[in-house]
Amino acid sequence: MKTDFTWGWNPTIYHGKNMPVSLASSKAIFDALKQCDVRMLSALPETWLVHLIRMADEDPETILVRLAKEEEGVGISAGAHFAGVKSAMLMQNHGFLASINGIVSLAHLYKIPLLMLISYRGTFGERDPWQTQGGNVTEALLRAMGIPYSILDGIDPVAKRIRQAQTLAESSLQPVALLLTRDLMWEE
Amino acid sequence: MLRLECLRSVYSELENCLVVTIMGATAAELHSLGHRPNFFYLQHAMGLVSSTGLGLALALPNQRIVVFDGDGSLLMNLGSLSTMARYQPKNLVHVVFDNESLLSVGGFPTATSTGADLEGIARASGIPKALTVRTVEDFRSAMKQVLDERQLTTIVAKVEATGPSGYVTDLSLVENRFQFRRYIQTLK
Predict the structure, then answer these.
(1) Tens of pLDDT, residues A81-114
(2) DSSP state, residue A107
(3) Has residue A6 been placed in a domain?
(4) Nearest to B156 by CA among B107, B78, B95
């Protein structure tokens, strides 16, 4: 879906610095979602996701919903599921933290499949001090919430792992998470 | 103005819509008028009813979606107004029953009791049509008009802070969810 907004700047350049977000990995992830017949993507931008969001925006077959806050995406995906449309959520791990009530009191309570693609900031190699706390708690929270998850740290397993995650979300009617790591999303 | 009378005044018009409601009194009162398979009651996840309605509206552009929201719920997710406004689905009617109160938990006053203006917030968020009604007749005529039009609309209905004696119905949450999805599948 074409939206209200076109970037007038190169998303890989930020504050004058080159941001080496992996185009190849972003394309592999987007292609895998398309292979799974994911037609609606909700997203809140962060650096590692810029190419993925642009690909969704430019694809006429994909409905991209740009959110104000990530928790809205749980509702968007619930509506899409009721409508018989496969969806996924694109967000940073801090966005996952911001979505927890919606995940528990909508997706878990009502057995809604959620395919969550979460950029895994704040782990080894993180230079941004403000990202460092989210990395400490992400996996512990996923485990505490009983959410099956897998860590994607290279491009080779992307297509198969996304297909498996989507299959499990649909068969189990529950949220499933894929953590997109620095090694996958960042080229330096 | 009583919310129950508002719901009763448009009950017959809801037959051909997909209806999603917030929890508590709104869900219990709509259910008390007679449950239909095209009604989904979001019995938790406060704030996400409008997001769920938006997901339905974007996925099913040929269906009419009616959201019954509340002041307490909407105040928890005001960003949803800007997200709805961004995509402006023409098939979405967003009703907010504003009783200036968190009635279900004991009637604590919300910020609309001290002047927060949800119609104004909706309009300033970019919702193309927003209005406030204070009588059942005005509510009924506003609903009939916007159901005939094709324009995203927020109707703020100022209602008394009263409701049923209990909120639990004999419809299990998960049963409601599967019935609602199955109903939508029959529409195709």
Answers:
(1) 999 999 999 999 999 999 999 999 999 999 999 9
(2) I
(3) no
(4) B95
What's the pLDDT band for B29 if we cut at 50, 70, 90?
very high
Domain span at residue A161 reads 16-185
Residue A169's SS3 state is: helix
Q: How many domains are there within chain A?
A: 1
CA quadruple A122, A123, A124, A125: dihedral, nearest 10: -30
Q: Do B52 and A78 touch (CB under 8 A)?
A: yes
Q: Does B27 touch chain A (CB under 8 A)?
A: no
Best of A41, A44, A72, A173 to mutate (most B CBs within 10 Å, chain B):
A72
Q: By residue range, what is the domain housing residue B126?
A: 3-186
* pLDDT digit string, tens, across residues A28-62: 999 999 999 999 999 999 999 999 999 999 999 99
Closest CA to A89 of A132, A56, A128: A56
Q: What are phi and psi of A140, to 5 degrees?
A: -60, -40
pLDDT score for A13? 56
The CA-CA-CA angle for residues A91, A93, A99, to 5°, reads: 70
The per-residue pLDDT of chain A, averaged, comes to: 92
* Residue A6 pLDDT grade (very low, low, confident, very high; cuts 50, 70, 90): very low
Question: Which residues, 6+ apart, have CB-to-CB distance to B58 below 8 Å?
Answer: A1, A40, A63, A65, A76, A79, A80, B87, B89
pLDDT for the residue numbered A1: 42
Which residues sit opposite A150 in a β-bridge?
A: A178
pTM as predicted: 0.95
CB distance B58–A75 less than 8 Å?
no
The CATH number of the domain holding residue B179 is 3.40.50.970
Q: In this structure, is the dihedral angle defined by the CA atoms of residues B9, B154, A4 and A54, taken in order, positive or negative?
A: negative
How many domains are there within chain B?
1
Residues counted in chain B: 188
